[in-house]
Amino acid sequence: xxxxxxxxxxxxxxxxxxxxxxxxxxxxxxxxxxxxxxxxxxxxxxxxxxxxxxxxxxxxxxxxxxxxxxxxxxxxxxxxxxxxxxxxxxxxxxxxxxxxxxxxxxxxxxxxxxxxxxxxxxxxxxxxxxxxxxxxxxxxxxxxxxxxxxxxxxxxxxxxxxxxxxxxxxxxxxxxxxxxxxxxxxxxxxxxxxxxxxxxxxxxxxxxxxxxxxxxxxxxxxxxxxxxxxxxxxxxxxxxxxxxxxxxxxxxxxxxxxxxxxxxxxxxxx
Length: 270
Prior knowledge:
Elements: H1 2-38, E1 48-51, E2 54-57, H2 80-90, E3 110-115, E4 121-124, H3 125-132, E5 134-141, E6 152-161, H4 162-169, E7 177-182, E8 187-191, H5 192-197, E9 201-206, E10 209-210, E11 220-222, E12 235-241, E13 265-269
Parallel strand pairs: 3-12
Antiparallel strand pairs: 1-2, 3-4, 5-6, 5-13, 6-9, 7-8, 7-12, 9-10, 9-11
């Protein structure tokens, strides 16, 4: 009898459980039947699924077609006041700044071209500017400047093309390196082809003002697609040389990821 009683209780519990499950399953079935009788159910979120001849709303939202335009502008000129605040007050060492960034007389600055050339010469920037000066809208940025970073400027740069200096001096065939010597003794050696290919200019005006109103100094080397730390300042001599192995191009061993696109030539105005 004890065994029978335990079995009977188990049976009753099992039946009760089955009844509860059946009740839970039967409820949506009835609702589905009612929906079927009334017609298709209203879709949820724009989609619907049919099951057992009934329309069941889906919580999944269909994606709408999206159209738009992407544009960028690299020709907006940075005001000199902003350039001065960043390049002179915030980080005076950026862009190859020398110890002093005070301007003496940019056009009276004497510049020599020597080395492997046929006609070495020394002339004032003013004399050279009268013959060879050009304007280029260029961008200067720190090589480590992230996307959307503030370490970047775009300016109307007026200066003397390095290619014009080499043409006047008559660079020897096979010359492959240029060393820029600053007034404070700083030297920067770069591949000749790289400098020419990057439309390099020795600038003496930024946005129609002397460099002292913006980046500071008397002159500064500007190149496209080159990190700003290669923009040597206050150049007094350009030495042309022929090396067994040409020097490495800027950015080759730089760790910052932005160096390949650090500077951009936005346009040229003659």
